[in-house]
Design goal:
TIM Barrel, nine-stranded parallel β-sheet, five-stranded mixed β-sheet, alpha/beta
Length: 380
């Protein structure tokens, strides 16, 4: 039967459908091409400018590149996502920043998803299912209630050769009153914050705004079945991917981190395989490592050195015995170690008796020529 003039035969219709499908398929495949590095960096600049405009020029905006993970399959080589931390002081600033992020996402054909955790709202931007940016919006309530008193390491001593003492106060994130007392001390401290706690983000943000150095107090497996475990911690037998994923999740809850020290970890830090998996994850994020030395069998410092991670080790625990006399004696021991070796690290906790002893003794140490510094200043 002859089709009517101007009609479409079945073969022609089939060809048309196949051609249309091919064009659609090719277009879809073309859209899977990842964003260029230059465009990613341009978007980072837009986000940073929007954050500074929304939160004001005095609010800190921090950018930390994520360790690069290569894309697989059709995506080709990958580009590391940027983590951007911004502190907002009011609900109106938060609304303004959210609106700006939505506009940036539309302009660059990105998806925008919100993930909330205590103290932080996180906004993930992605292109074709691959995350390009994470914007962490922190609301430090306490920082808005008290005047800021930023401080920096004091020169002290008799010049560049003066003994250096870094004091790390860890286990922060549980107790608001303890954090307030600690952050009120009028000298520089390195504050180590536990992740995934109700106050983790707020305490880290407050410490950063006051000029202190912030560490992640990284939970690790302890020796013995009866030892207390954390909900998320590094454990013997974890793969490199598991270590990296756990570390990334912890860092999302503790902004402004420049290094880590281990929380517990007598089993973990003695395991060469686990430490060999951890150190590249730290190096890729430009983080240093402080070995708290919770066991004499630790291999963590050696693993850090082999991996090219700046590192140091604790010399003194200040408050294993929680009496003023015992803590003062440990402070004196740390000062003697610093004088003998040129530098030392002491670790304590935000106990009331520890804070009181530091308040009295540190000015005396400085008068004797001991220079109080951050942990970053005594790395090897």
């Amino acid at each position: 039967m002859t089709p009517p003039r101007g009609g479409v035969t079945a073969p022609r219709l089939l060809f048309f459908l196949l051609a249309t499908f091919a064009l659609f398929f090719l277009g879809a495949c073309g859209n899977k091409k990842p964003l260029a590095k230059s465009e990613l960096r341009s978007i980072t600049s837009e986000i940073t400018a929007a954050a500074e405009k929304a939160a004001g020029p005095k609010s800190p905006v921090t950018i930390r590149p994520e360790i690069q993970q290569p894309f697989t399959g059709d995506m080709g080589g990958g580009v590391a996502a940027d983590h951007i931390y911004v502190s907002v002081g009011s609900a109106s600033q938060a609304v303004a920043l959210k609106a700006s992020l939505a506009g940036i996402a539309r302009r660059h054909r990105l998806t925008l998803a919100e993930v909330s955790s205590p103290g932080v709202e996180r906004f993930d931007l992605a292109f074709n299912g691959h995350r390009t940016h994470s914007v962490h919006m922190v609301t430090p309530l306490v920082a808005m209630q008290r005047p800021l008193a930023p401080r920096m390491p004091r020169k002290g001593g008799s010049g560049a050769g003066a003994p250096k003492l870094a004091i790390i106060l860890d286990d922060l994130g549980y107790d608001r009153a303890a954090a307030d007392s600690l952050l009120a001390l009028p000298f520089p401290l390195t504050v180590s914050v536990l992740p995934h706690l109700p106050l983790s983000s707020e305490v880290a943000e407050e410490a950063f705004r006051r000029g202190d150095e912030v560490l992640l107090h990284l939970p690790m497996q302890s020796e013995g079945d009866s030892a207390k475990t954390e909900d998320v911690e590094l454990r013997v037998g974890m793969s490199a991917e598991q270590v990296d994923t756990a570390l990334a999740g912890m860092l999302e809850t503790v902004p402004h981190v420049v290094g880590v020290n281990n929380h517990q970890g007598s089993r973990a830090t003695a395991d060469p395989a686990l430490m060999a998996e951890l150190m590249p994850a730290l190096r890729g994020r430009n983080l240093f490592f402080i070995d708290s030395r919770t066991t004499a069998s630790t291999v963590a410092f050696d693993a850090a050195e082999r991996a090219g991670v700046p590192a140091a080790s604790r010399k003194v625990f200040l408050d294993d015995t929680q009496t003023r006399e015992a803590i003062v004696a440990q402070i004196e021991l740390a000062a003697r170690d610093a004088a003998r070796d040129g530098s030392a690290i002491a670790i304590g906790h935000p106990h009331g008796v520890t804070i009181a002893a530091l308040s009295e003794e540190v000015p005396r140490l400085e008068a004797r020529g001991i220079r109080l510094v951050f942990a970053n200043d005594v790395l090897r």
